[in-house]
Every structure is written in C-alpha cells, then in structure tokens.
Design a protein that fits this description.
Blueprint (H helix, E strand, L loop, with lengths): L26 E2 L21 H16 L2 E2 L2 E2 L3 E4 L15 H13 L6 E4 L28 H10 L2 E6 L3 E3 L3 H5 L4 E3 L6 H4 L1 E4 L4 H18 L3 E4 L6 H6 L5 E2 L1 H20 L4 E4 L1 H4 L4 H4 L2 E2 L11 H14 L4 E3 L20 H5 L5 E3 L8 H23 L1 E4 L10 E8 L4 E8 L7 E4 L9 E5 L6 E5 H5 L2 E4 L4 E8 L1
Parallel strand pairs: 4-5, 4-15, 5-6, 6-10, 10-12, 12-13, 14-15
Antiparallel strand pairs: 1-11, 2-3, 7-9, 8-9, 16-17, 17-18, 18-23, 19-22, 20-21, 20-23
Helix pairs in contact: 2-3, 6-8
Length: 485
C-alpha cells in the first residue's frame, strides 16, 4: 500500500509526481495457457491534515478492503486457546480430550471466546512443529480427526481457527516423499536449512488443485470457520534457483496467482469462511491478501512489551485497522524494565491490548480471581474494540517505544455521538500526570465521561476539555473514559 502526499506548487516549481510500482523483476515469455498479472495499487489524495487523511483511509479500508464474515463487517473477537500444553512447543500437545476439557472449563468460568485457536503442531510432526507437509490431524492425538472439537465449538457458537503452512514442505514429510514433482528445491549446498525445506509450487495447477481438495476436506471435516496461513521461510531463493532461461519472474508470478486461486476457491467452497494471514507475523499484508484476510498475528515481536506494542498499534490502527494483540506482561524486573516472560495477565495488560481482536492469556485452569478480571475487562475491551471499528482514530501521544513515556489515544463515532479516550502511564514514566487535548472536540457540546472500572462519571463542557484534560495515574496503570456528547 502506498500513500502519496504532494503539496501543490506553482507550475514553475512543480511539474509532476511519479510513482512506479510493479513486480521487482520480470522478464519472461508465456507458454500456452499461461497468464501474468500485475500487483494491485491504491492511491489516496487528501487535504486538511493527517487526521483527515488517516480516517479517510481507515473508512475506505473498512468499507472496501476488510473481508466480511457471512456478509457482515467483522466484529470484535475474543480468542482463547491452550498454548504449550504439557510443556510441548506451540500446539504439539493438543488432543481431542484436552481441547474439549479446556473449552468446557473456560465456559464454566464465564469466559466464552468468539474464536478457539489451534496453531502449529496438530499434524504428525514428532513434536517439532516446523515439520510441515503432513496435512492431516495427528492420529495419536485426534483418533477421530478434529471433527469432535469442531462440532463442540459449533454447538457452543464459537468459531474454530486452525493453522496451516502449506507452502513450506519439510524433508521427510509425506509431501516431500510422495510428490517431488510439486516442489521447488534449493539447489546449492551453502544453506542446509533452505535445503531441508522446499517450496510447494502453487503455480503448478495440479499441485494447487490437490492442495485445494486436501485442505477443503480438513475444513469441512473439522468445521473450521477461520483458516490461518503462515509462511516462515523466503520463497525467492527457490524461484531463483529454478528459473529457466528467459523466464525471469514467471515462477513468482504464477505462484502468487495460484495462492490467490487457492484462497478464493476455499472461500467459495466454504461459505462464511474467512482468512487470517500471518507469514511470520505481518510479512504478507499486500492489498490482495488483505482483501481476503486480516492479520490477526501482525508481528512476532513484543507480545508483552507494552511500549513496543503501543508503537505497533499506532501504525496498525492507521493502516490495517483489524488486528489482534495478546494481553501479556513482560515487565518482569522490579525496576519496571522488560524481559521475556514475567507477570501474569492483569488489568494493565488489558489496557495495553485494546485492539479489535484480543487473545486473553488466562489459562483454563487459572484462579477465580483472574477469571473475574477477565470477565470484567472483557466487557470494557469489547466496547472499546467496537468503537475502534466504527469510529475515527486520533493518536494523541508520541510513540517512541520508551517505558518512560505516557501513551494516549482517542476514538470517536461522531454519527452516534460517542467515543473513548485512553491514557496509560508506562512502567518507568516519572510524571504522575498527563494533560491532553482531545484532537476531536465539538465546540459547545457537554460531555459525559464514564470510567467503567471505577464507576466514576464526569460531566464536562467542551470549553473545559479544550483547556486540557488531565489523567493522574500510578505507574503501570491505564484508564479509559467512554464518553457521550
């Protein structure tokens, strides 16, 4: 996605602006039956400042790019799962038994997810999830397939999300051994890791057809509602090492066309199915992919590092407004600095994860005290997330990935005369107070602001808010005021 901003000057100072986009390298003839296509580009021109520009783009994106769910705009989604169960990596430990038990336990505790998530490791992989290429449920863990889990979720009104990585095929997998004609191999001996993986050639119509039929069957048998696709290695070396003379770029072009055909056919065969694009965390967010998917896992960086997340969210809210965060805490050290792992999920973690979709990191066997926090904060998150999808976005604070800073933002649905303003005092922020002016403020209006956590209600005139609205908070605390005017 490109956004072009140009200030119009006099003819003598400014003649033209040129933007050139396209496939990085393409020089090829076409064989009978082949077609090629160009990348998609959207350009937006605007005046009147960044707030107007970002919200024009957000409105266009939500109305015309963001996929629909059963024909309706995507709503906020709470995600629950069982990660690293029994200490095994990722989701290698999931079984029919423990998934059904976990779902029932969450529901009994009053935490009902919109999405139940099974990520990498559900297929035969010997507890090594990157061993991709065996696309069927591990019979030792799912003797009846994943259908019983999907049926349980369907009965409870919960969507089933399952992870796939079809384009990477590991040495020794079924696909590697049984269909070498569908794979592109790395042909040099200077990188053993690349040599131990192969690229599944989606540009090969027979290979693409087989994959469509295979994954479509799993989707139907398992009652999958959300198809999640990852992509954890670079395809370019495989295309480069298999390029024929005078065919530069054709393998890439045909592969991407096959990738789109694969997704479109799965969606066509499974009405209501929608897609989650991961690709090692946000590495495949081109417009064509985003017209079919949302990046629920927009990054592999900083799940529990609050200042990093604030910077990430600042960009995502502006450009790709539907995404997901984890409510994790990595500020483990006593001085408020960050290391991986650390504190349990708490209210502060929720405040730093107010995004349209949310993975709540409570475990199904968590304490009743934590379940109570989850139930209360779920209501607050949902109200904020709905405004993030229906309203305009106004960043307030500067984001520097620095725990010494405060963080603040505003969302407003002006047509419905409601919104929210949030401020966070990060773990090392020395200033006890932060005074902000609402970027979106309606002269002459009277505002009613409500803090759902404390129950505090304020009534302020726009002239009072224009003079500055002050948050006074302890370190490692957030506050959100929902308002009407």
């Amino acid at each position: 996605t490109w956004r072009l901003e140009a200030k119009l000057l006099s003819a003598g100072d400014f003649d033209e602006t040129r933007v050139t986009v396209g496939q990085a390298a393409f020089r090829s003839y076409l064989k009978p039956g082949e077609t090629v296509r160009t990348p998609r580009l959207t350009m937006q021109a605007f005046t009147d400042g960044d707030d107007r520009g970002r919200n024009l783009w957000r409105s266009f994106y939500i109305d015309h790019i963001l996929p629909r769910e059963d024909g309706h705009p995507l709503e906020p989604k709470l995600v629950l799962h069982t990660w690293m169960i029994d200490g095994l990596p990722e989701f290698c430990g999931v079984t029919e038994e423990n998934q059904l038990k976990a779902i029932d336990t969450y529901l009994a505790g009053g935490l009902k997810p919109d999405i139940w998530w099974i990520d990498a490791g559900w297929y035969p992989c010997n507890n090594d999830w990157p061993t991709t290429g065996n696309w069927y449920p591990n019979p030792d863990h799912f003797p009846n397939g994943m259908g019983p889990v999907g049926e349980k979720l369907q009965k409870e009104g919960i969507d089933f999300l399952v992870w796939f990585e079809p384009e990477r095929v590991r040495r020794g997998s079924d696909l590697w051994n049984q269909h070498p004609e569908w794979l592109l191999h790395y042909l040099r001996d200077d990188n053993p890791w690349l040599a131990d993986n192969a690229l599944f050639d989606l540009g090969n119509p027979a290979a693409c057809d087989w994959l469509i039929d295979t994954i479509d069957k799993i989707i139907k048998d398992s009652h999958i509602k959300i198809y999640r696709q990852d992509f954890n290695f670079p395809p370019a070396p495989y295309w480069a090492h298999n390029t024929q003379p005078d065919r530069e770029g054709i393998l890439e072009n045909l592969h991407i066309q096959g990738y789109y055909r694969y997704w479109d056919t799965l969606i066509e065969r499974n009405p209501g199915l929608w897609m989650d694009s991961c690709a090692s965390g946000g590495r495949r967010n081109d417009l064509e992919t985003m017209r079919r998917a949302v990046p629920l896992h927009y990054t592999d960086v900083g799940y529990g590092h609050h200042p990093i997340k604030q910077k990430q969210h600042r960009e995502m809210f502006e450009w790709i407004p539907y995404f997901r965060a984890h409510n994790m805490n990595w500020d483990n050290a006593e001085d408020g600095t960050y290391v991986n792992g650390g504190r349990p999920t708490d209210r502060f973690a929720f405040h730093c994860a107010l995004t349209p979709a949310l993975t709540s990191m409570f475990t199904y066997d968590d304490t009743e005290e934590n379940f109570e926090i989850g139930r209360e904060m779920d209501e607050i998150w949902r109200e904020a997330a709905e405004l993030e999808l229906s309203g305009d976005y106004y960043p307030i604070s500067e984001c520097r990935c620095d725990a010494h800073d405060w963080y603040a933002m505003q969302f407003e649905n002006t047509a419905e005369r409601r919104g929210f303003v949030q401020a966070i005092r990060n773990t090392l922020a020395e200033d006890e107070s932060y005074t902000l002016t609402l970027p979106c403020l309606h002269e002459g209006a009277t505002y009613t602001l409500t803090d759902r956590e404390s129950g505090e209600v304020l009534t302020l005139h726009s002239s009072e808010l224009a003079a500055g609205f002050t948050f006074t908070l302890p370190k490692r605390t957030g506050r959100i005021y929902f308002y009407k005017f």
